[in-house]
Amino acid sequence: MDTFFLIESVVKIFTMIAAVMGLATILTWVERKQSAVMQDRIGANRADIFGIRIIGLFQPFADAIKMITKEDYIPPFGNKVLHMIAPAIAYIPVMLLFAVIPMGPPLEIGGRIVNTQIANIDIGLLFIFAFGGIAVYGAVIGGWASNNKYALIAAIRTSAQMISYEVCLGLSLIGAIMIYGTVDLSQMIAEQSGHWFGWIPRWGIFIQPLGALLFIPAAIAENKRIPFDLPEAESEIIGYYTEYSGLKGGLFMMTEFIEMVLISALFSVIFLGGWNVPWLEYNGFNFPWGGTWTLNIWVVKGMQFGAYFLKVAVLIYFFTLVRWTLPRFRYDQVMRLGWRYLFPLALINLLITGIAVVLFA
Amino acid sequence: MTNEELQIKFKERFPDFAESCIIDKGHIVAEIPLEHMELTLTTLKDDSEFDFKMYMDFTVVDWMERKPRFDLVYHLYSVEKNHRIRIKVGITESQSAPTMSGLWPVADWHEREMFDLYGVKFSGHPNLKRILLYDSFKGHPLRKDYPVTKRQPRIESTFPTRDSQYQEKDLKIHRGD
Amino acid sequence: MEKRVRELKVDYGPAENIYWVEVLKGLWITNRHFMVNMWRHILHALRIKAEKGAVTFQYPEEHRPIHHRWRGRHRLTVKQNGAMRCTACMMCETICPDECIHIVPGESPDPNVEKFPEEFYVDALRCCFCGLCAEACPLDAIRLDVIEPEICGFTRDIIFNKEFLMGLNNDRPWEEWYIENKTDSKEK
Amino acid sequence: MAKEYENRELILPTKNMALAMGPSHPAMHGIVRVNAKLDGEIVVEGSVDIGYLHRGFEKSVENHTWNQGIIYTDRLNYVSAMMNNVGYCLAVEKLLDIELPPRGTFLRVIMSELSRVADHLTCVAAQVMETGAMTAFLYAMKAREYVWEIVEMACGARVTTNWTRVGGLMADVPGDFVDAVRERIPLVRDVIDELDKLVTKNRIFGDRYRDVGVMTKDEAIAWGFTGPCIRASGIPFDVRRDTPYLNYDAFDFEIPVGTNGDVFDRYLVRMFEMEQSILIVEQALAKLPDGPVSVDNKMVTLPEKADVYGSIEGLINQFKLIMDGHGIQVPPGEIYQAVEAANGELGFYIISTGGDTPYKCRCRPPSFALTAALEKMITGQMIADVIPIFGSVNMIGGELDR
Amino acid sequence: MPKIKINGNEHEFPEGMNVLEACKNVGIYVPHFCYHPLLRTVGSCRMCKVEVSQNMRGSMQSRIDISCKVEVADGMEIRTDTPEVKKQQQMTLEFLLSNHPLDCPVCDDAGECELQNFYFEFGQHDSRMIEPKIKNRKAFDIGRSIVLDNERCVLCSRCSRFLEEVTHTHELGIFGMGSAESIMLKPGARLDNDYAGNVVDLCPVGALTDKDYRFKRRVWYLKSTPSICEHCARGCNVRVDWDLNPYHWHKKTFQMRKHRTEATDLQRIQRIKPRRNDAVNKEWICDTGRYGYKSTDSADRLTQPVINESGELKPVEAGAVIKAFVTGLNSAIKSNPGKVAVVVSPKLTNEEIYAAWSLFRKRLELPNLDHKLPVDPEWTGDDLLKSADPFPNRLGCEWIGFVPDGNGLGVEDLNLAISNGKIDTLLTILADPREFLEEKSLSKLKRKFFILRNLPEDLKEHVDAALPAAAWGEYRGTFTNFEGRIQRLEAAFDPEGEAQPVWHWMIELATGMKKSLKWRKTEDIMHSLSDHVINYKNLSYDSIGPEGVVVGDKA
Q1: Do the chains C and E touch each other, judged by at least 3 C-beta pairs below 8 angstroms?
Q2: What would the 3-class secondary structure string for E31-42 be?
Q3: Contacts for E527 with CB less than 8 Å, ≥ 6 apart
């Protein structure tokens, strides 16, 4: 382990944490503003610093201050220890997942290839499944430790829903894994560069359309957002964090936003070609009709970073749009959807992909 | 069916109180003694000629000085035949009326409401307790002898942890003295 | 006219049953709202168009346009010489269903006027703004045409007195009056 | 639903959980409590507690004069207050045996129907919102705002209208009223269309609403359902047609009926009724006659302000109509007047023993019967279904508890 | 007895009755301003027009005539409902209103004004008046308690007739002609006689108003309770008009804020009006009775039981005062029952007297009971209503026997007895002891107990313990007037503070002394009273009608 690696890792870790936390913070603003504009409103814009409001961008800061200064209420008859650690159990695994999510294309600095992942491990996707599975404990323990009937119902719903949809989530990605032949995320992106017939980008969505279609509901369900927000279901049972306030409640909410970044990144990595831009190669654009547009390598890298960010942003916009437009399912409908529709479809997808891989490989 | 036809039918069917059946401002009104009430209402509901399947409204009128003091007023409606009838039954304070909740399930709540507000009792009612007011409310507010300005303390706290002094104070604030 | 009945029935076909079609249609509606509103917001921010992208009003800065028939807060009108019109006939106090008006009548110091209200109180928190007092007034002395939506700023203890109800004619902010009054009563 | 879990006891010994939903619960509006006994997600037993908004409507009206009683009716169904005003005044006018001039009648019809649109918009929106779709709710609120702007134009207030008077209206509508209504009708229509596109065919909504809270025809009648809820059960009962009041005979509209009597049918009926109400408003606007809005009867209607300020006769008339114990003298008698309010039959049973105050003023709230049946409707359903069922009966606390 | 037809129905009336009264008897109200049953008929207002059909010279001839001036005659036919009559009434009213000022907002009579009532019932015309109205004198002070407004006057002359025929003082008259005609004081006169207040009641409009009631409350706020005046032995029938509303506003809502604290605002009784009772007071009352209600809410009203603790009066709970009473009386009685004197005021009702008598004479057997308070030398009776005796129930006290025992001492002997030391304990009920005791004997007394309504500042030093008694208007009971007529008075509102009617304190006292008096309400006392006192035999509240009953040897 040399010094460069150490510096590189530390820089990457801090960049990642800053980026994710910043993004999640801004997402609270995005969520509010986007829903407001969708609903012909203006949205929260009251928080100001010396009278400057900049369309409500200070609102997240105000929220943060509010959460920090609020009374941290611990229900008297619940399990205090579990109640304390539950938000951490929900939050830490999700943050850990970003260790394997690439931030952009690999860079060449001082002659060394620098991967923009924190940890370039070979089992990236499996890592995600593994730690994603832990996240369910946060909600379940939080709901149970609150000693609140609503929270308990929510906790039970959470466990049932998340375990069910983890299966679909996994199966919907296995098709892609079979095609790319790897579970390393950087490798997967690399597999998606290039074009078929010179025209169509080799993105996962074109070879795994069904997988992508199954991934979206499963991912939203994992994220516990409308239409799968049964664990929260504000108007029915108030949610597994009914008894949480202050920073701990804030962590639960933050987790939700971080997860949204995560699934957006995952979707763009696996199905949208990551940082790949159509016809953009290391030396610039090579159009299929023959034209070329030579660009500096740093411009190309910048464009790739930008494309990756853009894909994540559009996905977040899409998920927010879904969250504010659709109603939520009922408990039995979620289960039916998961086990009777998504699960068989994922299996079929797997079967077809398998046959195709065997035939064409 | 027009009101007049219904009136004639009512008189034929119930000759005992035929003279009490009148048409008042486009409504058929009939007065029935309490002891015949159950049978009459059952007939009105089940007989296909009357077919008063819908229990539109039920209320009590307090005629302070009159004897009997209260009137039970039923408004019945027939969805099929589109006619209405108003049945009045006199009842004293000590008597109790037979419940109609077996005939029309919605009567359950209506009777609870009238028990709550007027103190009229219904025999055979499955769940005769206050509905709009709290259980420790004293008196029946829609009776004419209940003063409109009367104040009552709100629900007395049943939590043993609460200091009784605070209760005293709260009550005083609420009463405004 | 005869009674016409229409039976409503909505059946789901395969397009509806696979969720995605209708979901995307719905998303398209909300998306369209977003795009249109965003465009309008931008035009508004760039001062190209006056109308903004939202139907709501940013309340303290921006007031909803109120119809001239609006029943707002009370005021007591005055004659041309500045004296109050009210003669304490108690019509408003009588018709007020909330008993929120209290008038103490008295002999007027002005020889041309017999009776006038020595005190005129309106308990704004009892008031339900039904407008019956203005309707009952035989002298056009009380009106509810003060367009000022907020009544309780920071307190729930609001009883308007005569001077305040008349003082509205010269646009004195109510907080000023309230602070004066409050300090008054404290001293006493 | 419950069948799948029938043999649960054999597998695992379980206990039911009692869950008190409300009154401080996001969907219960702070005015009702559902005491549910849960077996997992299924409500095995439900009971409903009401009375959190009881204000003593009857006692208050009995202790006020006839015209003062109108402000109490505002607070019955506070989303469509004008219809309550109209119902109460119609009852008193029948006791007085007076009839409104045509313009007053037409205006009452217009405002009643606009209030119905506002009420149905609120109900549908709340129902949709409580299943999670916030945006549709806000679109509906936007449309309701258009309606309330018209209400404000007519009476000077948006919610507590106090618009009618015994024997007429508070005042004639302002001159730009007709144009304003015509201007807003397409806006409201657009929103209703949008709502329809967002909700009706979306299967997630459909799954939530279908076969939930089913009331068959017989059950609906036995439980005293009226209004959209009984029509959803397939019975075309509408007070506007069956016992006509005002001049609804002059308007052409259709009565929607549902097939299943579930929450989805109630939603469909409400959506269709909004269209019909707008049609009625358009017809009424086209026919709106000129003339006075109140009866020309010095014993009932307050004189013109010019008369009051300028002549002793007008002044005396004003005083006589307002002083306690003088006022409008309603002859002894009793009346039951029903109007088709947004939730169903709103009846006023008024007894006068002569004099200027009612002896009794009973209000038959449509919500009461619907809420009474809530217990039946939620039993056997899932806990998540309580919310759309509750939303579909459109329980308004002011009307329920009075 | 002539038979006439009124609106088609035949009725029979005594000779000499006028048509207006006849119509009133059969329930048809004919509007009128100037006619008053107790005054001479003048027929000046022309409001009471009816259609009279009479057989004249062999044929029925009908005419419109004023009903107050037409006497019933056999075969007469009266119609009050023809369009012509209506029109005539309407036109008369329009004339009367043509110069009437727009004064309803400031007029105290609004609400009981006949112009308003008749307009609503018989007029309902639209105004046709476009000329300016005639101005006249307004708010003119014509006497101690009366204000005259000539603009509102309809010249019915009821007031001047009253002053001519009843009081014979002739202060007011009608002067001028045509549009300048108006009621005025006669030169040099002022309306200051003892019955001046009655002209306000007589005035059908708001021309004569009462200074005492001026602008105080609106008429329609008032609630009325029938009662009996307590200011002399006549027992005039009066009506207590009261309103608790301002009282509550000031007591509850405005006590935190600056507000007027004048006593008038806190008065519950707003005014006293006479009730008609032809056997007692016709429809008049004197000004003493009319304005004598103010002590009920005066500043010196005793509202709490007080006890003397080392020279200072302290408000305490009623039980403590009762205990002080009991121990004081018991120790005095134990030494010698003759050392105790009980003096009651004849202002007590029969029930209260009887309760006191039952306790002190029947149970405790005290000899020195008396009620004969000296009469205020300034009080003079007259031959109209005012009796020479200013106490309402002296006869009742005598009949019940609240007088000294065979060798007991009366009020006039007390001064001597105290100075001799024969009496050392005094209990007075509603009576100020200084009325019958000298200062030095009062201070010589060992124990001084009082049951009082009002406790003046200078009496406080003499009080050992005092209980608050309910004031006039706060309790019910019966008075026996000087001619033996028993009349009922009703409670208008609840007693102020912790005050209670005297009979209630008697029962408490008896309980404290272990001498049980088992009454719960005044009806119970009346029941025992009718059983035990010969003059009240078979009397109950129901049998006392609105006119009262004369009983005993006077009947």
Answers
A1: yes
A2: CCCCCCCCCCCC
A3: E540
Match 């009137």 to its residue by tokens: B71
3-class secondary structure per residue, chain A: CCHHHHHHHHHHHHHHHHHHHHHHHHHHHHHHHHHHHHCCCCCCCCCCECCECHHHCCHHHHHHHHHHHCCCCCCCCCCHHHHHHHHHHHHHHHHHHCCCCCCCCCEEECCEEECCCCCCCCCHHHHHHHHHHHHHHHHHHHHHHCCCHHHHHHHHHHHHHHHHHHHHHHHHHHHHHHHHCCCCHHHHHHHCCCEECCCEECCHHHHCHHHHHHHHHHHHHHHCCCCCCCCCCCCCCCCCCCCCCHHHHHHHHHHHHHHHHHHHHHHHHHCCCCCCCCCEECCEEECCCCCEEECCHHHHHHHHHHHHHHHHHHHHHHHHHHHHHCCCCCHHHHHHHHHHHHHHHHHHHHHHHHHHHHHHC
| Smallest Cα distance from C146 to chain E, Å | 25
pLDDT band at E248, cuts 50/70/90?
Answer: low
> What digits encode the pLDDT tens for the residues D270-323?
999 999 999 999 999 999 998 888 898 888 888 888 888 888 888 999 998 888
What is the rounded CA–CA span in Å between residue E188 and residue D314? 40
Give yes or no for a contact between E448 and E442, defined as CB atoms under 8 angstroms apart.
yes
Q: Is C107 helix (H, G, I), strand (E, B) or coil?
A: strand
Q: Which two tokens stand for residue C169?
A: 């004619």
Residue in D with minimal Cα distance to E93: D313
For tokens 């206050």, the residue is B130
- D140: nearest CA partner in chain A: A39
Q: Measure D13 CA to nearest chain C CA, in Å.
A: 38
- The whole-angstrom distance between A292's CA and the closest CA on chain D is 46
| DSSP, res B99 | P
The minimal CB distance from B56 to the residues D59, D224, D360 is found for D224
Q: Flag if D135 and A333 touch (Cβ within 8 Å).
A: no
Is pTM beyond 0.90? Reply is no
How many Å is the Cα radius of gyration of chain D? 23
Cβ <8 Å between B104 and D224 = yes
The pLDDT score that the predictor gives to residue C147 is 67
Q: Which residues of C touch D302 (CB under 8 A)?
A: 135-136
B133:D51 CB<8 A: yes
**Which residues in chain E have Cβ-Cβ distances shorter than 8 Å to C133?**
none
Task: Identify any residues that bridge with B30 across adjacent strands, giving them in sequence order.
Answer: B87
CB hemisphere CA count around E78 (13 angstroms): 32
CB E464 within 8 A of CB E325: no
Angle between helices A3-38 and C20-45 (to 10 degrees): 90
Give the amino acid at D147: V
Phi, psi of C103 (to 5 degrees): -120, 135
Q: What is the DSSP letter of D302?
A: P
The Cα–Cα gap between E430 and A350 comes to: 107
Residues D29-58 pLDDT 10s: 778 888 888 888 888 888 888 888 888 899
Chains in contact with A, where contact requires at least 3 CB pairs less than 8 Å apart: C, D
**What does the angle CA E90 – CA E95 – CA E97 come to, to the nearest 5 degrees?**
90
Give CA–CA dist E51/E6, Å, rounded: 10
DSSP C170: G
CB atoms within 10 A of CB D208: 26
Please choose, from the candidates D224, D271, D248, D200, the residue with its C-alpha nearest in 3D space to the C-alpha of residue D374. D224
Nearest 10 degrees: Cα torsion A322, A326, A327, A330: -70
Q: Measure the CA–CA gap between E480 and E395, rounded to whole angstroms.
A: 6
Alpha carbon distance D196, D30 (integer Å)? 29
In angstroms, the CA E250 to CA E257 distance is 9
Q: Is A115 left (phi over 0), alpha (psi -120 to 50) or beta?
A: beta
CA angle A138, A144, A150 (to 5 degrees): 110
Q: E206 in contact with D at a CB cutoff of 8 Å?
A: no
